[in-house]
């Protein structure tokens, strides 16, 4: 299964795919952060009285989650669920695919298709899956409020940590690929 996903990414990587995914991802980011829609971060922050949402924190406890759910109230929890079920359902897929296809674009030009480093383009997909599982866990917790599912919040927190651990690794890896690609494409000067 993983080999099929890797092959698909390697085969379909192109600037058109990358730029299309980037445009969709940036559009979703704008919807979530740059608008006053009922499910946007600014609206949710207003409902919570300034308590930041869990997704952007570098870790949270069950008490943190239920403090947020308390502060949000019924309307705020509905907005929070809408955020996760509408744009933030697709946002992790978007950014993870952008990074996966971008990494693959450089990898297929730097190394043979069967080289073990090719597998590294799947790192962003793991980050995106972790983000998606975090969101789904938080939606379930919000739906069950005021009942507490501390174990599910802990799972969401673990997914949050995986997401925030892998994102910088994937970014540094991509920067190194770009540098390597530019170094290999530079013409060698013959010194006589």
Task: Describe the secondary-structure layout.
Blueprint: H1 2-12, H2 15-33, H3 41-48, H4 62-85, H5 87-110, H6 123-144, H7 150-185
Helix pairs in contact: 2-5, 3-4, 4-5, 4-6, 5-6, 5-7, 6-7
Features:
single chain, 192 residues, mainly alpha, elongated
The number of strands is 0
The SSE order reads HHHHHHH
User: What is the radius of gyration?
Assistant: 20 Å
How large is the count of helical segments?
7
- Please describe the biggest sheet, giving its number of strands, its sense, and whether it closes into a barrel: none
Short note summarizing the structure:
Helix content is 75%, strand content 0%. It is mainly α.
Report on this structure.
The chain is mainly α. Helices cover 75% and strands 0% of the residues. The protein is built from seven helices and no strands. Helix 2 packs antiparallel against helix 5 and helix 5 runs antiparallel to helix 6. The longest helix is centred in the C-terminal third of the chain and has 36 residues. The mean pLDDT is 92.
